[in-house]
Amino acid sequence: MNFFSRKKSAATSAKERLQLVLVHDRTDLTPAELESLKDELLKTISRYIDIDPEAVQIGLERDGRAQRLVADIPLKSSARRKAG
Amino acid sequence: MTAQVITVTSGKGGVGKTTAVANLATALAADGRKVVCIDGDIGLRNLDVVMGLENRIVYDIVDVIEGRCKLRQAMIRDKHHPELYLIPAAQTRDKNAVSPSDMIRICNDLRADYDFVVIDSPAGIERGFRNSIAAADRVLVVTNPEVSAVRDADRVIGILEAEEKGNPALILNRLNPVMVKQHDMLSAEDVLDLLAIQLIGIVPEDENVIVGSNRGTPVVLDPKSRAGQAFRNIAKRLQGQDVPFMDLDKGTGLWNRIQKITGRK
Prior knowledge:
Number of helices of chain A: 3
Order of helices and strands of chain B: EHEHHEEHEHEHEHHEHHH
Radius of gyration of chain B: 18 Å
Helix content of chain A: 40-55%
CATH architecture of chain B: 3-Layer(aba) Sandwich
Radius of gyration of chain A: 18 Å
Strand order of the largest sheet of chain B: 3-4-2-5-1-6-7-8
Shape of chain A: elongated
Number of strands of chain A: 2
Number of domains of chain B: 1
Shape of chain B: globular
Largest interface: A-B, 18 and 22 residues
Strand order of the largest sheet of chain A: 1-2
Distance between the termini of chain B: 45 Å
Number of strands of chain B: 8
Oligomer: heterodimer
Number of helices of chain B: 11
Distance between the termini of chain A: 61 Å
CATH topology of chain B: Rossmann fold
Order of helices and strands of chain A: HHEEH
Largest sheet of chain B: 8 strands, mixed
């Protein structure tokens, strides 16, 4: 029973924790490794185009039983001007 | 006749594999099918006690493999159904006594004369598990709505995919509908969303399962048990019938719970 109504339910907490654990189990990638993968990706991309590292979102997502590495990397508007 | 070989596995121990095998095999036999079940847990045999056949064991699967007896001599006839047999595991400590090719050979020997061979896999993802899935035409993964069981089930499903063992189907065992309603337990939808495999049955938590194991009489033989009904439904689905899933919300209302607590039901 959930007496503390502001607290997340046990079921929700179980599901959210499992979602994370399963993604890492399935890819054999630890959170630390994922972080260093992100860093290297950002470094490489920054060599070619101007990006805002704060706005970048890179993460593993589940799609049924498949996993995908999804990256959303907004370009700085100045990047276009510089290029042009 | 060509038997279908069905392996029941889970990753985590204690989620109800042996109970599922005893009940599914018994339900299939009750439907008139010829069934052999094999205990694949060498060194930790248990299917014999759950089925109430522990006093009848003379030979075991290692005796068959090492040529001390014929396959038919190691098959113990069930107490309730004459067309249901058990091949018990050995209690020897040498787990390497059985290989995947031994299992394939034994199952192929049985295929011509039976409708179903049901294999009880040991927990884990080692040798015994590999042996148990070697001959499988179909794999059923048992899990409970708990974080550790779901995580281990996912590991096993990953291995089955890598081994190209076909699409495994899920048995969600020991679901407590009252706890789900109170959001204290993962729901069937949650577990299916996480594991993303086909569902073949949801078995509600039911004290009668333990009573059945204690007596050596699988709960499918109790016509009133909800878990028994769930296992009977899974057995029908294994035979290709389209059986709707049970309404597990039935009997979880407040009044029903009060009646249960006060023992009026």
